[in-house]
């Protein structure tokens, strides 16, 4: 396995970015459907549409949320519930 030094500094940043995105996905999937869980899902969705998310990944927020909602037994409606977390 190559070290970070061998791969270059960008490798480390890429791994960190991947870990951030994967943690957000895990947080969304584990949030559940309680009021608190829905609030967590909305917060994560807000992150998916943030400038930071766009800087660290090429994943489409719309496609990611669509996929997560397909996996979810009771998905949130992002557009209707958006104001709950403001």
Q: How big is the Rg?
A: 15 Å
- Mean pLDDT equals 83
Number of helices: 6
Structural class: mainly alpha
Shape designation: elongated
Run of helices and strands = HHHHHH
Helix percentage range = over 70%
Largest sheet: none
Low-confidence stretches: none
Bin the strand percentage.
Answer: under 5%
Distance N to C terminus: 44 Å
Number of structurally distinct domains: 1
| Strand segment count | 0
In short:
By secondary structure, the chain is mainly alpha-helical. Helix content is 71%, strand content 0%. The protein has one domain.
How does the SSE layout of this entry go?
Elements: H1 4-7, H2 9-30, H3 35-48, H4 51-56, H5 61-71, H6 78-81
Describe the model:
The protein is mostly helical. The chain has one domain (4-85). It contains six helices and no strands. It has helices spanning 4-7, 9-30, 35-48, 51-56, 61-71, 78-81. Helix 2 packs antiparallel against helix 3 (35-48). The protein is elongated. The model has no long low-confidence stretch (mean pLDDT 83).
Task: List the main descriptive attributes of the protein structure presented here.
0% strand; mainly alpha; elongated; 86 residues; 6 helices
